[in-house]
Design brief:
mainly alpha; three-stranded antiparallel sheet; 8% strand; elongated
Length: 465
């Protein structure tokens, strides 16, 4: 364990370039930051004020939005002080939106969050201490220690003296870094003194004025008021708070349970939407597949009819082309015969005359140029359009009718069968019945699915007729 001198040496030797923010825990940072605006509190400019709802906010965030100034003009922080705030009878909490009365219509009369102010003061001290510019309360040497109870800064020598003194040997003396890393050390503060009688500590609490006073004020200005010792008043308040803690714990538990249910409901909403979306996509894909199948069927019929007509036309074309070639060949032969000698032509007279008679007397083949025309006549699509209009609906899911084991209101394990009947008995027997009910439920679901698919197929066939 490091001695106090080693600890301060380690603290001083830490790199001066290290940011103060790196030493602040998330909790400390939250304590010194205004939640609505996200800016650090500054006494006199962004003074932290505690509202009756126990939320803390800076004075700037508590200002009324409608004021004599132009709300569009950003007021420099240097020009904004507590006296510059506009008086208002009520203030709305920026966090919970509850309205509260402002004492004397003056925001500066609201209680100050002294814990946040003290943390800010210690951060400023820490910055000065890192630069060697924080003076010791007893001399001109730089201070590196702070007494929590006395709320004073000391150099090494005065810190050792303070620690050895019989009157202050039980005081906690820490470095500023230690305090910032463990802000709980601020829970014990030095005595506060009366503003009227400076040397008198605040030891009495006046219930009528709701403020701490000194003994001299108690017998003079507050002599007719109901007063208690501060320790006694704190003990009474603590007892009252302790009595309320169980109720608060129950309320917190109820709120957490409600929040858990809301979060569960949010997850269920997302899951239901995703599952239903997949079901919609699946149903549409089935419908599209059926339409595509019908498309392929119709196109196939068209191609079949086209092939039949093409075969008929091609056969007639081949026949006509053969006859045409034969006739042209005979005519060319006759014409070429007269090119030779006359004797040769006369020798071929029988063949020439026979060929000419054949060409003249030959009948043209019977050709049927008319073929069955192919067309498409849409029909049944009006039924499809009507079916699309009622193609499913979005609404509450079907209730779970399956058998399952549940815990009843008495904490007893029971079986809820297919018909919703509650069955009680031994666990072994309930499990056997559960298995039997699950089998029956699976058979029922399969039968319903077959019936549904058959109905869809019948409706599809009817729509295509």
């Amino acid at each position: 364990m490091l001695s106090r001198s080693q600890a301060v040496t380690s603290s001083i030797s830490t790199s001066m370039g290290e940011k103060v923010d790196n030493l602040l825990s998330e909790k400390v940072t939250k304590e010194i930051t205004c939640n609505p605006c996200g800016k650090v509190f500054r006494y006199g400019i962004r003074t932290p004020r505690i509202l009756p709802c126990l939320h803390t906010s800076c004075e700037r965030c508590l200002k009324p939005k409608s004021s004599g100034r132009d709300s569009r003009v950003e007021i420099p922080e240097e020009e904004l002080v507590a006296d510059d705030l506009f008086a208002q009878p009520k203030v709305t909490c920026p966090i919970c939106r509850k309205e509260s009365d402002v004492p004397g219509s003056d925001l500066s009369k609201l209680p100050m969050n002294f814990y946040a102010v003290k943390l800010l003061e210690l951060i400023d001290y820490f910055k000065l201490e890192r630069k060697g510019r924080l003076p010791c309360i007893g001399c001109t040497e730089p201070a590196h220690w702070r007494c929590i109870e006395c709320d004073e800064n000391y150099c090494q020598d005065h810190s050792d003296f303070h620690h050895k003194s019989r009157a202050t040997c039980d005081h906690r003396i820490l470095t500023f870094k230690q305090i910032l890393l463990s802000p709980r050390s601020l829970s014990t503060m030095r005595n506060q003194y009366c503003t009227t009688h400076n040397n008198k500590p605040l030891e009495i609490f006046c219930k009528d004025c709701n403020r701490a006073i000194c003994t001299l004020c108690a017998v003079t200005q507050h002599k007719d008021h109901e007063t208690k010792e501060v320790s006694e008043a704190v003990a009474a308040l603590k007892a009252k708070v302790d009595a309320l803690k169980p109720q608060i714990s129950m309320s917190l538990y109820s709120l957490r349970q409600a929040l858990t249910r809301v979060k569960t409901a949010a997850r269920e909403v997302n899951v239901d939407a995703q599952v239903s979306s997949r079901k919609v996509s699946g149903m549409i894909e089935v419908c599209i597949s059926a339409v595509r199948e019908k498309e392929r069927e119709l196109v196939s019929d068209l191609e079949k009819k086209k092939r039949q007509n093409t075969e008929i036309i091609n056969s007639q074309k081949e026949l006509l082309e053969g006859e045409l070639t034969s006739m042209q060949t005979g005519r060319e032969f006759v014409e070429r015969a007269f090119i030779g000698s006359e004797v040769e032509v006369l020798c071929l007279e029988p063949q020439i005359v026979a060929k000419m008679d054949e060409l003249i007397s030959g009948d043209c083949p019977t050709i049927n140029s008319e073929v069955d025309r192919v067309g498409f006549s849409p029909s049944g699509h009006d039924h499809i359009f009507k079916a699309i209009e009622v193609l499913g609906k979005v609404g509450p899911p079907k209730p779970d009718r399956g058998p399952r084991m549940i815990v009843d209101d008495n904490g007893e394990l029971v079986l809820l069968d297919n018909k919703g009947n509650v069955i009680r008995g031994e666990t072994k027997e309930l499990l056997r019945l559960l298995k039997q009910n699950i089998i029956e439920e699976e058979l029922r679901v399969e039968e319903e699915e077959r019936r549904r698919l058959q109905e869809e197929e019948d409706a599809r066939i009817a729509a295509l007729k």
